[in-house]
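Title: [Solved] ESIP1 protein 3D structure

Original question kept below for reference.
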Amino acid sequence: VGPYVLVTPNETRRKQLQQIAKKELDDLEQWKKEHKPGPITLVPQRLGGNKSEAQVRQNQQMILMQSKYQKKHKREEYVKAKKAAEEAEILKKKEIQREKAERLEVKKRKEEMQRREMFLDDQKYKTNELLNRLDVGLPKSDSCQIANPGPESTAWERSHAYKQALREDENRRLEEMKQEQQRKAELMKFKQKQEDETRTRALKNEQRSCLQSLFIFYCTLRVNNAFLDRLQNKIQPNNIYQPGYTG
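Solution (posted by the thread starter after getting help):
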């Protein structure tokens, strides 16, 4: 705690302030007494009282019931309004989603059309290239009419001619594929037949070589046996074995 200075109260100043406050309070009380309202004087008149107590009670009951129905009606109106607002919000969201779906569908349709156009252009190019490469096909007048349609031909005729050319080209390619498969099948059959003949020929040659080897071995064996018999007869002339005996 720091140092402080003690100031003694001024009694004279305090008394003056108290006197001033007391005088102001006395003046306020005097003013209230002087401005006090006087008695009210009104002319007597008839006030209500034209209905009985039962009617008043019935009116009160009706007002109470009406207030209940009004509260119930207000509550129902509030629920209906809230439900309508929620349905409107849901419909708004559905509409937004529907618009998004429609935009997405339009975008997909555009992309599909672009892909189809690219595919048709590529197919047309391939078809023309195939028609130019093959000797058989549409006449030159038809191909020229399809490739370079004149201004007098309508869009439907050009489309019909182009579809007809594509159909004929597809049929021709299918026919070529069938012929190619048939040629491959015949080639495989011919190769299989050649392999079978080669295998049979090799087997016969092997059997023939085996028979020749056996024949040569048999002849060699007979020659050797005859030589051994002659040699044995010279060494043992009195042997019981006879020439040509192989043992």
